[in-house]
Design goal:
Length: 431
């Protein structure tokens, strides 16, 4: 009876959210995908605190009909990735900004806006849009992703046929204190293709984003994003990835500030010998809640997955990590690794971890670990005894703690810039 009442409450919450929404108009393929997503949402309802994967994060402000206001931050430093040569695609409060964006042309790549492509009756995106999201709904429901698939009106559809000459940078600007943005992106890589996708910016007062990535055989996808910098912003993001044989998927997220951030990543190994690395580093203080939820399914032979997440918290900040590795019976020779660690810089902050392994094969190597700790006093004493001031010594040890996560970024220029951003955050808090 209690379960039925819970489901009824979740469905009622969904209907409340849906009352003011209307499905965007579109051609045949988009209409079918959106209607199917709406049906999934109505069946599952919106998340509540009693859901297993929402025990540590309150979804109230993410599912409310109206977005809570969020002040627009004034930032003195240059935008991240600004010094790199890349193709820029800019969204302001979830609306495409053509003047601020570059021409959407890049050799070996087709880039279209969802709002335009959705009008067609047929499109290559029909094989990916909403398809990977739907596959990611089992065994754990992800209703906020279904909400996005149904109602997102814009985003980019990127079809990559060859290795690209430069990264594509999705830039999200926040200008309205009451903005409530949804964006849905689709990336498809042909066999042997390669792409680096960069994302940065606070996006909106409340932001719901889905990224679906379909990798062909031997394809390579590198994803680096920096979330910030507005302190009052709220965001829920989803990455759904399907990996064919010998493909490689790497995703790293740096999060600074934000009152509530939940990043979900769902990876499915569909071909032999594929590799997926998912990593993140976050730093926050005060009214800061950060949730990383990862689900990796090994369903092919000889695949490797790696999860590395580090969080630095202080002044009452909260961090969450929920990571699962599921190894299906035929996924022999699986190599799965998972680590989540939190550095608490005071006694008021909290870290909640839920690491999981579910293994149905025999010939596997899988491990997971999770730790919580403070600054190493011996290491701090060592640095201070050699003339390093206490605040600088603490920052050096903090950056060293985060290094295992940032090392997952292979491009040295990107890694250095992200480390500089972390150092700048620590310096601002020190001052």
């Amino acid at each position: 009876m209690a379960r039925a009442q819970l489901l009824a409450a979740k469905r009622a919450a969904a209907e409340t959210r849906l009352a003011e929404l209307r499905l965007p108009e579109g051609g045949g393929w988009a209409r079918r995908a959106r209607e199917a997503a709406l049906a999934r949402l109505r069946e599952s309802g919106l998340p509540g605190r009693r859901d297993e994967y929402w025990r540590f994060t309150r979804p109230d402000t993410l599912i409310a009909p109206e977005a809570p206001a969020a002040a627009v931050a004034k930032v003195d430093e240059a935008p991240v990735f600004d010094a790199l040569e890349r193709l820029k695609i800019v969204f302001v409060d979830g609306v495409f900004d053509a003047q601020a964006s570059d021409d959407l042309s890049l050799e070996g790549v087709s880039i279209e806006r969802l709002s335009t492509a959705a009008k067609a009756d047929l499109h290559w995106a029909r094989d990916v849009y909403g398809v990977l999201e739907a596959r990611g709904q089992s065994p754990v429901e992800r209703p906020l992703a279904a909400l996005n698939t149904a109602f997102a009106e814009d985003g980019v559809l990127i079809n990559v046929s060859h290795p690209t000459s430069k990264p594509i940078n999705l830039i999200y600007c926040h200008e309205s204190e009451s903005s409530d943005a949804m964006l849905h992106h689709v990336v498809r890589l042909a066999p042997g293709a390669a792409l680096t996708l960069l994302e940065n910016g606070p996006a909106a007062a409340r932001f719901n984003k889905v990224l679906e990535v379909d990798l062909g055989e031997g394809a390579r996808f590198d994803h680096v994003r920096a979330q910030g910098s507005d302190r009052a912003r709220r965001a829920v993001t989803h990455v759904f990835a399907r990996l064919a044989a010998q493909s490689r998927f790497k995703s790293f997220t740096l999060t600074v500030n934000g009152v509530l951030t939940r990043n979900e990543c769902v990876v499915e190994f569909a071909g032999e010998g594929a590799v997926a690395h998912v990593a993140g580093a976050c730093v926050g203080d005060g009214a800061f809640h950060h949730d990383d939820t990862v689900f990796i399914t090994h369903d092919a032979v000889g695949c490797e997955s790696r999860q590395v997440f580090k969080k630095v918290l202080r002044d009452g900040a909260e961090g969450v990590f929920q990571g699962k590795i599921l190894v299906r019976p035929d996924a022999q020779k699986t190599d799965g690794y998972q680590i989540s660690q939190a550095l608490l810089l005071d006694g008021d902050s909290q870290f909640f971890a839920k690491p999981e392994l579910e293994i149905h094969a025999d010939d596997v190597i899988c491990s997971h670990g999770s730790t919580i700790g403070a600054i190493d006093e011996e290491a701090l004493f060592y640095l201070r005894s050699r003339g390093v001031p206490r605040h600088l010594a603490s920052d050096l040890l903090t950056l060293a703690f985060l290094a295992e996560a940032t090392q997952e970024v292979e491009d040295a220029r990107l890694r250095e810039e992200l480390t500089d951003r972390l150092d700048a955050w620590l310096a601002r808090r020190r001052d």
